[in-house]
Amino acid sequence: MFSDRFTHLKSSAQRTSLERAFETLILDAKARRLKPTTLDYFYWQLGPFLQFLEEQGIMTPQAIEPRHIRAYIVSLQERGLKDTSQHAAARAIRAFCNFLEREEIVELSPMRKVPMPRLDKRILPAFSQEDVKQLLAACQNVRDIAIIYFLVDTGCRATEFISLRVGDVDIHSGAVRVRLGKGGKDRVTFLGATARKALLKYMMQRGSMSDDDPLWISFTSGKGLTVAGLAMLCKRLSARSGVQHCSAHTFRRTCALWSLRAGMNIYVLQQIMGHADLTTLRRYLALVEDDLQEAHQRHGAVDNML
Questions:
Q1: What is the pTM of this model?
Q2: Looking at the domain assignment, is residue 80 inside a domain?
Q3: Statement to judge: residues 154 and 255 lie in one domain
Q4: What are the pLDDT digits (tens) for 126-151?
Q5: CA 278, CA 22: separation in Å to the nearest integer?
Q6: Cα–Cα distance between 169 and 196 in angstroms, integer?
Q7: CB-based contacts of 148, cutoff 8 Å, min separation 6
Q8: What are phi and psi of 228, to 5 degrees?
Q9: 122, 155, 161, 278, 285 from 270: Cα distances, Å
């Protein structure tokens, strides 16, 4: 019933109040102009959950209990889903239950008593300095060189990066206006002198541009670079350089880690990266603290001099 993105929903008279509640959530998301990716997230994460509830005989939002949510999360574990997938499902359920409470469909969210699934404490790969040098050496044009410097220096997400317009970058100050990032909020990040120099070479090669033109152009279509096009570029650079885990998000993680290692204040970095909280950055900070501990073990004053 909840498969295929609800393309064969029953007639209005046949729908359960659970289905109607979901439809109201989607309508609310559209009214708030949430991104299509967010709507997709609700469909793909909540669809299986609501189907699971119906299989348990739960047809109304008021009948959802914490034990039903716990049972669903356990079912994901038993299917062998990764901790991140379990957490993504739980976040969607929490958003749905909070919506039900906010709309006074239920008195209290049943998710209030359900802890979020624990995420393993791990940091996905970031590039080393040698990795980035190898990627730069693998570039065959000034655009790709500029892209690497830009991604490492700004920490932009892929969707933010491909949405940039020429007028969003102040080449003199290095300020970059990131429009409607995650959470629908604009922010400002920055390019250093080296990245600005690379970007300027690329812009000079392109010639005359208006402020509304896409900043990054596909050589194939002549139009704005897409997320898929950026992913293909990363794949090509990975193949040429031999550097693994090459993706826009690896560049973003590299920006965060290198900035912390260089001494940037974690709260400043939070604003630049557009993080809603410090959870992710604290993991990177732990890596930086490991660096400091290792450095002290090698060069500590007393152990090495007395």
A1: 0.62
A2: yes
A3: yes
A4: 899 999 999 999 999 999 999 999 99
A5: 31
A6: 10
A7: 132, 135, 136, 139, 237, 251
A8: -65, -40
A9: 19, 11, 18, 7, 12
